[in-house]
Automatic annotation (TrEMBL):
Residues 95-118 are annotated as: Disordered. It comes from the Bacteria. Residues 104-118 have a biased composition (Basic and acidic residues). This is Regulatory protein. Gene3D superfamilies: Tetratricopeptide repeat domain.
Length: 422
């Protein structure tokens, strides 16, 4: 009796490429689900592990949901072992994939960004600046799911749809961060980076690395923040020169170094950011959010504050407030928080109180948990000076304004394990 030969994993994968479950698993980069589907079709775990060059123990961790594939090289091994088209996993076209079938397909691949996608990005970006990300997060996620994701698995789509998906996924990450959901933000940034790589837009990939650097620093990981800034700078060097992007990445690097108390390298990185922005032109990048003089001043104030150069930090903070447009209400609120903070650290409590009164009237209905969190940090700094009567009186007004903001943000603020707003 002839023993039946084991199934060819690549043939099985080819038969699954029209299965919505596989497409969804690939879009979510859930390789455990992909492995389970292959195993359920008769491919042994031993063959799967050997094909991907991992141990069976690690394979079981992926299949049982105890661990997730994170390394780019493993995704590439999976794509090549099972002939999963690169775009399904956010990768560049694999060497074994056939080239575009005809000139028409090639023209589609070279097509500029879809106007509807760019319009959506600009619409969400403008609304976010005015209202904060908390109220918009769901709308962006729905737009991604309903309008963009289906096109990722359409072979007629060019790489620009991956750029659109990357830009909107990164935007969802920022809105999650603005809503106080940093784990969710990190997951969005992690998904956005391979999408940007798949589009071939290394400038967009570098921009997303800058966002990951920001988030790492906000969660207390200065080492990770510096690493992401280095990654972004390396990616930016491979793409066209965009001075604003270089300035953004160098400020991220400077902030991480300042937080790690590496004063001289931080100062050098900040100076590099200033040189970059001096060379900026009017030519922008369609997917990158702007980085201008107001943004550099705001970041410089924080860097110089962390370096304890408070007089220089004050100059930059005042410049950030003066330059910030009225329509950028969240950025204006954050810049004013920084300005009050620096006044307190300089020991000028009267200036802190005067500036603080203006801060409380800055868009009190702004749907930003991040602003609320920074206000709470500022309050903790002020409380240490409550023996001074003007500070004590200001804190009374501050607490009244905080309660009003909390009521407006009650549906957005994440709950602590005890069920109360964190």
């Amino acid at each position: 009796m002839n023993q039946q030969s084991p199934p060819d994993p690549r043939a099985i994968t080819a038969g699954l490429l029209s299965d919505e479950r596989l497409l969804r698993a690939c879009a979510e980069r859930d390789m455990g689900a992909v492995f389970r589907m292959l195993n359920g079709r008769g491919v042994s775990t031993r063959r799967i592990a050997a094909a991907v060059d991992i141990t069976q123990g690690r394979l079981y961790e992926y299949m049982n949901g105890k661990s997730r594939v994170e390394r780019l090289t493993v995704f590439e091994q999976i794509a090549d072992a099972f002939h999963i088209p690169g775009h399904l996993l956010g990768l560049a076209r694999r060497s074994w994939e056939p080239p575009p079938a005809n000139a028409e397909h090639q023209r589609a691949a070279d097509h500029p960004p879809d106007g509807d996608d760019l319009e959506a990005v600009e619409h969400f970006r403008s609304a976010d600046r005015l209202a904060g990300g908390g109220r918009l997060y769901g709308a962006v996620v729905r737009h991604l799911s309903d309008r963009v994701a289906p096109r990722l698995v359409d072979l007629r789509s060019g790489p620009q749809v991956f750029a659109a998906a990357a830009a909107l996924t990164e935007m969802a990450g920022w809105m999650a961060h603005d809503s106080g959901h940093d784990d969710r933000a990190a997951a969005h940034f992690a998904r956005a980076l391979p999408l940007a790589r798949a589009s071939g837009d290394l400038s967009l990939a570098a921009h997303i690395a800058a966002s990951s650097s920001h988030l790492a620093l906000e969660t207390g990981d200065a080492t990770g923040a510096a690493g992401w800034a280095r990654t972004g700078l390396a990616l930016a060097e491979q793409g066209p020169r965009i001075p604003e992007l270089g300035a953004r990445l160098h400020t991220r690097q400077a902030r991480a170094l300042a937080a790690a108390e590496q004063h001289t390298p931080a100062a050098r990185a900040l100076e590099a950011a200033r040189r970059d922005l001096d060379g900026a032109s009017d030519a922008g990048h369609p997917w990158l959010s702007p980085f201008d003089g107001a943004a550099l001043a705001s970041e410089s104030a924080l860097i110089l504050r962390d370096l304890e150069q408070y007089d220089q930090a004050l100059t930059q903070a005042e410049q950030a407030v003066a330059l910030r447009e009225a329509g950028r209400v969240r950025s204006l609120a954050l810049s004013r928080i920084t300005l009050v903070d620096i006044h307190v650290r300089r020991g000028d409590l009267d200036a802190a109180v005067i500036t603080g009164h203006g801060l409380l009237s800055t868009s009190p209905t702004l749907g930003s948990v991040r602003v609320m969190q920074q206000l709470d940090e500022l309050r903790r700094l002020l409380v240490s000076h409550k023996a001074y009567q003007p500070v004590r009186e200001y804190l009374v007004r501050f607490d009244d304004a905080r309660r009003a903001r909390m009521l407006l943000l009650a549906d957005l603020i994440p709950l602590s394990p005890g069920g109360t707003p964190s």
